[in-house]
Amino acid sequence: MITLKGKSVNKGIAQGKVVYFKRTGYTVRHSLVTNLDSELSRLNIALKVTGGELESLYAKALSELGREDAEIFRAYQTVLRDEVFITDIRRMIETDHVNAEYAVQEVTGRYAGMFSEMQDEIFKSKDQDLYEVADRVIRVLNNTKGEMLKLTEESIVIADDLTPGELINLDKDKLIGIVLYEGSPHSHVAIISRTLNIPAVIGVENAAALSHHSDDEEDTAIVDGYEGRIYINPTDEVKRQIELKTDTIEVEQLKLNSLKGLPNETINGRRVEIYANIGSLEELGQAVENDAHGIGLFRTEFVFLNRNVYPSEEEQFEIYKAAAERMEGRVCVIRTLDVGSDKHVRYLGFRNEANPAMGYRAVRISLMEPVMFKAQVKAILRASHYGNVAFMVPLVISVEEVKRVKKIIEECKTELKSAGLPFDEKCLFGVMIETPAAALISDRLAKEVDFFSIGTNDLTQYTLAIDRESNILDEFLDTHHEAVMKLIEITVKNAKEAGIQTGICGELASDLSLTTEFVKMGVDAFSVYPSMVLPLRSKIRGINV
Ligand code: PEP
Ligand code: MG
Questions:
Q1: Average pLDDT by consecutive 10-residue portion of the chain (545 residues)?
Q2: Which of 49, 203, 411, 540 is the most buried (most CB within 10 A)?
Q3: Which atom of ligand 1 is closest in space to residue 301's alpha carbon?
């Protein structure tokens, strides 16, 4: 038995046959061409063929994964259509008289180099998209098809890395586990594994231990997505332990399922709400399935990311309306656009900020881009006609900002009325408390809004001055820091005095070791990942507060 350890990106346990996947490589030759026209037309044909491949991958991803994950393939298509990038490749063929595959490789390397020098993670990761597209074009040019991994029975795939294209081409009924030597928790593959709910472990630390195994077809493995462990050819003892663990998890799940339909009520009768956080329409199903009493945070970013222009009012309206209808009268809190910092959209331009987390982001962008903001506000208002919709605005720091947002909402209402488009006049309006500034003036903010929702991820980042994206500061990060807890307490107290409700929608809402304290403070609602709704309900029903 060989035991490997990595980072779990999706929980669950998989047990079965192992399929090792190694991509067939190729070398790009450098040759001089004399017939430039024929070389350029080779390139054009390869671009067309690749475009067709990406189109069908997009369609497949759309039907199997849903809109959000399918956007990955749209991003690839955008690379392929990028005039500047393609013109540079053509120009290199024309001026240096080189073969097309060499030009594609060279120009891609140059562009990817530019991206990887950028400080920003999102831009850095763009070079992966470039390489994926270039690899496809080169394979068409030199006629080396990427190896198609085919699964004939239920299998755990072990590979250095998998591209989203390779993953989407697999038979999902047969793919039961993913183990990658490389990869990051934010990679496309990690996201897709969560969407498909396949146990996945990436960044395996001691992958070398397995190197001599790669030709052995007979290996079996257990992937423990709870612990981030992989057991190759497990011993009977490990199999027995995993079986016990699976049984315990199943029993736990059954217990949790029996809580569906029951109130979120403490032993001595205090009721709170438990809502779900979602980042796409696909997750609505999980929210309903886990009996969330509503959506407490609908992150609308996914509608805005990976596009060349921002989504129109109409396009947004259809999405928000679908969410409102799906929740059938339960609340659906739609957060207005929260991009900037770690999430970039190219149509807003790239600002080379020294401290992007403290820069052009969230409500600041909305106020600086009123035309775009109004399209979103109107879409949300119009969706409110079809369900119980509420607004929520991220990252506010002043009463002034809140007043400006409210003024824009009023303008939008007037415009919708004159256009004869229906909306709910009583659509609630809340703000996120995710800066120390907002928490400290929550007494004044409370007079302006219908509810607060505390974004503890950002509140922690800004209170402790620790970048939430950093992975080297763990020793300084105390997620239960008394300063953060004090700010939450101040916020809840001020909200109570003003007669409005406070929810928590950051990660701390899922931290069951804090639930009792939060309920004691008077927190009215928790908004958590759909899979945390029932564990949190179980916790609340067991406390005496
Ligand atoms: C938060 O900051 O806690 C939050 C819920 O918002 P996001 O994680 O989307 O920034
Ligand atoms: Mg936030």
A1: 90 93 84 93 94 89 81 86 92 95 94 67 65 91 78 92 84 91 76 85 80 68 94 95 94 95 97 93 89 96 84 96 96 96 78 89 96 98 98 98 98 98 97 98 98 96 90 86 98 98 95 97 96 95 95
A2: 540
A3: 9
Pairing status of strand 501-504 against strand 428-433: unpaired
CB atoms within 10 A of CB 354: 7
Ligand minimally distant from the alpha carbon of residue 528 = 1
Residue given tokens 């991009």 in the structure block: 339
Distance, CA of 345 to chain centre: 15
Cα distances (Å, whole numbers) of residue 116 to 80, 129, 174, 534: 19, 12, 36, 41
**Residue nearest ligand 1's atom 6 by CA:** 455
CA atoms 8, 11, 14, 19: torsion sign: negative
User: Is 505 annotated in the active site?
Assistant: yes
Q: Which of 531, 484, 529 is nearest to 507 (CA)?
A: 529
Q: The tokens of 217 are what? A: 């077809």
Ligand 1 centroid to Cα of residue 454, in Å, is: 9
CA 473 vs. chain centroid, Å, equals 23
Query: Sign (positive/negative) of CA torsion 480, 481, 486, 491?
Result: negative
The partner residues of 278 in beta bridges, in order of sequence, read 298
Token duo for residue 102: 């060499």
Contact 200, 161 (CB under 8 A): no
DSSP 169: T
Nearest-CA residue for atom 4 of ligand 1: 455
CA angle 520, 539, 497 (to 5 degrees): 25
**How far apart are the C-alpha atoms of 320 and 325, rounded to whole Å?**
9
What the chain holds in terms of domains, given with CATH numbers, is 2-18+147-244 (3.50.30.10), 36-142 (1.10.274.10), 266-540 (3.20.20.60)
> Distance between CA atoms of 148 and 213, rounded to whole angstroms?
21
